[in-house]
Specification:
Number of helices: 1
Shape: elongated
Structural class: mainly beta
Oligomer: single chain
Helix content: under 10%
Number of strands: 30
Radius of gyration: 25 Å
Mean pLDDT: 85
Distance between the termini: 27 Å
Largest sheet: 6 strands, mixed
Strand content: over 45%
Low-confidence stretches: 17-27, 296-307
Length: 382
C-alpha cells in the first residue's frame, strides 16, 4: 500500500547578508429538532480507511441517508447507511450526514449533522520522517537529507522552489534571486510517501511584507455548515489567523467549522498576522470570500401542484430529466457553492434532459426561472 503524502511543517533557512540562520423528488420534510437529530460514529480501519455509522435517537429510524466527505482535496458523497471512505491524507475533514428520520408517530423530518473529523498520520507511515537542512558555500546551496525511516528509502525528489527538480541524494543549487523560496523533499519507501518543506531566503533583513505574506483562504461547504482553511503563504515566519464568519461569530486557528443559524449571504474574512526574523514589524493582511446558504427562492413543497414539477432519477448518473416546468422557463444547474455548470431553456416537448456525465458526485440545484418566478429543485449526482 502506498500511503498518501503527508506534509510536515517547514522551518525557515535564512541567509541574512551571507550568514546562515432514482425516483420522483419528494416534498422537503421539516427540519428535525435536537431530540430527533441523527449523529454518527466513525472508526479508523487503518490506511486512512474509515467507517461511518449513523446514531439515531431512540424510537426513530432513518429512511434515507446522504453522506458528504469534504476537505481541501476531497469532495465525495455516499448514500449507503454505513459507508466506508478512504481519506487522501492526514488532515481535518468536514463530514456531514443528512437523513430523513421517521419517528414512532410516523412523522418524517430532515436531520443535518456535521462534524470536523481529524485524520492522523496512518501508523504504517509514522516511522517515515523526512527532514533536511542546508549548507552555503560560494553562493550555492547544498541540500542535506536528514530523513529518518524505519524501512529502506526507495527514492527522493527535491522541489527546490524556483522550478528546479532534482533526484540526487544531495543536490547543489544556485538560486536566481533572493527569494524566499520553498524547497520540499519527498521521500518514498515501499509503503509510504511523505514530504517536508523549508523556506530559503538569501537577502538582507527587513523584507517587505508583501514578499513574505500572501494571504489566501479556502472554504468547503455543506448546506449551512462551512469549514474554513488558512491557505496563506507565510514564508516560514510565525503566523496566526482570526476569522470573522459574517454572522457576528468569530474564531481563530485553522481549520475551523461553523454552522449558520439561518439562510443568507455571509462574508467570511480571514485576518492573517505574520512575524519573525525577516520582518521588523508584524505584517497584516485580510482576505474575504462570500458564501450563500440559500438553496433557492422556493422549496419543493412550495411549488404549485398544477406544475407537477419533478426531477428524476434521483440520484441520477448520466442524465437528469425535468418534467412539469413552464415551456418558456430557463434553467441553470449549479453546485452548492453557486457555480453554474450548465444552462438552457425548457424543452418544448415538456421533458428537459440534462447530461450529468461530466459532473462529480454530489448535491446540485436546478433553478427554473419563468414569468411566475424562480423554483429550485435539489438533486443528487450518484
Amino acid at each position: 500500500m502506498i500511503c498518501p503524502d503527508r506534509i510536515l511543517p517547514g522551518l525557515l533557512f535564512a541567509v541574512l547578508s551571507g550568514v546562515l540562520p432514482g425516483s420522483k423528488l419528494q416534498a422537503q420534510a421539516p427540519p428535525c429538532d435536537s431530540l430527533q437529530t441523527a449523529t454518527f460514529l466513525h472508526a479508523d480501519l487503518g490506511g486512512y480507511l474509515y467507517s461511518f455509522a449513523p446514531t439515531l435517537p431512540v424510537g426513530t429510524s432513518a429512511l434515507t441517508t446522504e453522506w458528504a466527505f469534504l476537505g481541501e482535496n476531497l469532495n465525495q458523497y455516499d448514500f449507503a447507511q454505513q459507508p466506508q471512505v478512504t481519506f487522501p491524507s492526514q488532515g481535518d475533514y468536514l463530514v456531514c450526514l443528512r437523513a430523513d428520520v421517521l419517528d414512532d408517530q410516523q412523522a418524517v423530518c430532515t436531520s443535518v449533522h456535521c462534524e470536523l473529523v481529524p485524520v492522523p498520520v496512518d501508523p504504517i507511515c509514522a516511522g517515515l520522517q523526512p527532514a533536511f537542512t542546508i549548507a552555503v558555500q560560494d553562493g550555492s546551496i547544498t541540500f542535506i537529507d536528514q530523513t529518518v525511516s524505519g524501512e529502506p528509502v526507495q527514492s527522493v525528489t527535491w522541489d527546490l522552489g524556483d522550478g528546479s527538480i532534482s533526484t540526487e541524494a544531495a543536490p547543489v543549487h544556485t538560486y536566481p534571486g533572493m527569494g524566499p523560496y520553498q524547497a520540499c523533499l519527498t521521500v518514498t519507501t515501499a509503503n509510504c510517501s511523505a514530504k517536508a518543506c523549508n523556506w530559503i531566503y538569501l537577502g538582507p533583513a527587513d523584507v517587505p511584507c508583501d514578499t513574505l505574506l500572501h494571504a489566501a483562504i479556502g472554504v468547503v461547504q455543506y448546506e449551512r455548515t462551512v469549514e474554513v482553511f488558512d491557505h496563506s503563504v507565510t514564508s516560514g515566519m510565525n503566523s496566526s489567523i482570526h476569522w470573522d464568519l459574517g454572522d457576528g461569530d468569530t474564531a481563530s486557528g485553522s481549520p475551523v467549522i461553523h454552522t449558520y443559524a439561518e439562510d443568507g449571504y455571509f462574508d467570511i474574512c480571514g485576518s492573517i498576522a505574520l512575524w519573525g526574523p525577516l520582518a521588523t514589524d508584524t505584517c497584516m493582511a485580510q482576505v474575504c470570500q462570500w458564501v450563500s446558504t440559500i438553496q433557492g427562492s422556493a422549496a419543493i413543497d412550495q411549488v404549485p401542484s398544477t406544475l407537477a414539477l419533478r426531477a428524476f432519477p434521483v440520484p441520477f448518473s448520466d442524465e437528469l430529466h425535468i418534467e412539469g416546468a413552464a415551456p418558456e422557463a430557463d434553467w441553470t444547474l449549479v453546485d452548492v457553492l453557486g457555480k453554474v455548470h450548465f444552462a438552457g431553456g425548457v424543452a418544448a416537448s415538456g421533458t428537459t434532459t440534462i447530461s450529468g456525465k461530466e459532473l462529480s458526485p454530489g448535491v446540485y440545484f436546478v433553478h427554473l426561472t419563468s414569468r411566475s418566478g424562480t423554483v429550485s429543485l435539489r438533486v443528487v449526482k450518484g
